[in-house]
Amino acid sequence: ARGVFGWLRDPSWVRQAATFTLFPVLLAGVARELVLAGYRRSTAAVAVGILLCFVRLGGHALVNVTDFPFAAALLATALVLPRKLREVALAQERGDPRSVFLDSLLASVWATVPFLVRPPMLLPVALLGLGFVFLAWRGRGRSSRLLWGPVAALPVVFLVLTAALWPVVWSQGLAAYPRAFQIFRDFPWQGPVRAFEETWSSLALPWFYPWIWLPVGMNLAGFAGFLLGLRGWSLRGRDPGPGPFRLAHWLPLWFGCSALLVLILRPVLYDEDRHVFFLVLPLLVWSALGWERFSERARRAAAAVLLVSAAVSYGGWGRYSYVYKSPLIVDRSADRFMGDYWGVCVPALVRELPRWVPVGAEVVVLGPTGAARLQAERLFAAESGRYRVLSRPTGQGPFWAIATNRMGLLESLKADVSAGRSRLVHTIPMPPGDAACGLFQYGDGLKAPAAQNAQ
Description:
By secondary structure, the protein is α/β, with parallel strands linked by helices. It has helices spanning 2-5, 11-36, 41-53, 55-63, 67-94, 97-117, 123-138, 142-165, 167-172, 176-185, 214-217, 220-232, 247-265, 277-289, 296-317, 346-351, 353-356, 370-379, 409-418, 450-453, and strands at residues 192-195, 198-201, 362-365, 388-390, 399-404, 422-430, 434-442.
């Protein structure tokens, strides 16, 4: 990433740029894999359109350097592995041990990538191993023996790659592997989670929580395309792909296994849907494959509508696309959900501080201060100390407080305004018309914000 985006200089910008660039690369890769699997280009275009119309996905590609790369890596792996298995099966039929070895080795490397991006994701390794076993069982004589080598080599390739590329192993040794599962199972984050005006603890979410986000995060055209694609599977039509491991069968298997793991393990989830992208993306692509059974004209028209509607959605929501809410849910008010929970409005508000805040003033950020500090350093580097960005007031004079609308924090601070303890100076809006964050002025000797006292 530094080699391509080194001109940005700031490491955080480099990481953001690399993550966002991954989005068009992923879309191009999806289209390529579908065409290689035997699907028409127009079907591949519909798949790209449906993924683009999952507006929250594109929004997270802009701001989320952790969950989006993982979801992208897992979707790419879900599409590449069946192709590699088909290549192994063809080499097996030809009795070509060299091709069996090379293709199975590449498949093993691909299957390890999601684990390297986010341990302990072993689903691709497990499904690839089952694929090798199936081919070995299906074959006869020497053809069958060709596959037992890849079956035995898969865990070796996994261990070698993770030992070489996973830094945790370097310090913890083999204990890193069980510890990764323990952290996944008992992840320590605890806090409130809100959706549709209901609030739960992240440790006691209802079973349906991962499944409610698709109609929220997709625009109307995308959700309609998704439903019509599912309907397409009930129509008569061709089922592309030679032999076993067709995408038409593989993607539902992948989705079903992922869904079962989520239902059984009940991982800690928070911040709305950002942890479950990996779960829904294969389902979206599979629904797009159902469009293969519609006419060419219908597919082209659908692709055009999807691409245009996606452009309109991203244009309207901008940096807030990661918390996009579809008109399908009618009331899209931020306080019904978690709001701008990552505070992407904060850099925009810091840019406007010179209009409202005097030089040298205390600026208290109610929440993580990293984004505000970075933005202040970038914008006011030539004026060292122009603002003191703090996590809590020093109590030595007036200060200004920045609050986002995460979990209704902004609204709670308005109680200080009503009580005469502060003044709302400025707000940054977000679609569909809510205030994403606000700047409050607190006078000399007045109390700290009520929300800050509660922390």
